[in-house]
Amino acid sequence: MTKIMVVGGGIGGAAAALGLHRAGFEVTVHEAHPAGGADAGAFLTLASNGMRALAQLDAAAPVGGLGFPLSTMSVLDESGRELAGVPLGEHDHPPTRYRCLRRAELGEALRAEVRRRGIPLFHGARLTGLTEGPGDVTVRFADGATARADLVVGADGLHSAVRSQLDPDGAGPQYAGQRVFYGYTTDAPAPAGGPSDRITMVRGSGAAFGYACSPDGETYWFARVPGPPAGAEELAGTGPAGWRAQLLALLRPDRTPAADIVAATTDRLMVTNASQLPPGGRWRGRRTVLLGDAAHAASPATGQGASMALEDAVVLAKALREAGQDGHPPAGALVAALARYEALRRPRAELNTVTSARLTASRTDGRPPAGAPPRDSERPAPGVDEDLLRLLDWDTPLPAAGLPD
Fold this sequence. Notes:
Layout: E1 3-7, H1 11-22, E2 26-31, E3 43-46, H2 48-56, H3 60-64, E4 68-70, E5 72-76, E6 82-87, E7 98-102, H4 103-116, E8 121-123, E9 127-132, E10 137-141, E11 146-149, E12 151-154, H5 161-166, E13 174-185, E14 198-203, E15 208-213, E16 219-226, H6 232-237, H7 239-251, H8 258-263, E17 269-276, E18 288-290, H9 293-296, H10 305-323, H11 331-365, H12 386-392
Helix pairs in contact: 1-4, 1-10, 2-10, 10-11
């Protein structure tokens, strides 16, 4: 049986392990952090395509009870006037409705499912080297240990060690032009009117702002602020009170709920620099392949990062399964399977990267005219269509090439 090593135990890595195990491969997961993953305080929106991908991994049930559903997106201008209301997800199919949840919750739920299925998961295993041989891959770790596998899947995020080994001369992460603030509060004023399962996006004069209120009254919020990146000393030394003061100065001129929400947030307020990978990087070798942020990290504007990684996990597992139904594809078939995975995933994943970068740039270079309708890139994108449904369906064979135009 083919031995596959997944490097990275976050959302994409855990999902890849579940898919590859379901496809009949012998899988191990090696996570650099002692427990959990980086950026554990952030939250995310898991879109319908991500929920559908989870279902194909038999992992929708553990995630379906986390966070809370979202059915509508409301877009406001700086005066608080609603510009548009956009439905989210598939209302006649509850398991695929959008969900807002903490990143750490999603990652831990998937890791728990990995452990439940008996897939070995090693923490504190930081990759430092990788060598592809004619018959296997040798991986070296920071503690001096080595391991071999038939295939290595790099799911180790934006600063991927696997990518640096696979493509040492490739472009690394780039600052996307925005600082991202995010936080939680139970003391914000209750939102006025509209459905309770709503996320509100504000086109503010100084920041792009979004918020949603959970059924138990906790407000999740984020703000994207154009400008230079925060330096290491600033990130380490500013603290919630300093960040709150900076953000309130930008939000107070507007007549929206944003400033009151931030003012009500105390210690649970964090900041990071939005980053992205430029399209066109290398995704694979003969026995090494990347998925999720390691391959196609996008700025957070479209909110599709986790869902894209889950799609990757399903398509990679199907491509490898179809290359060798006995769980042991020959070397040539393995190379072809990785090429097929890339051909099927790269156009859609990089479309998301470009779309997210365009939306980020619109906040960096200038605001839209007052009263302008929502841009296409402000809508949840890319969405779900029949081609994607067939691509993700576990029992439907993959097409020979990429998705049709």
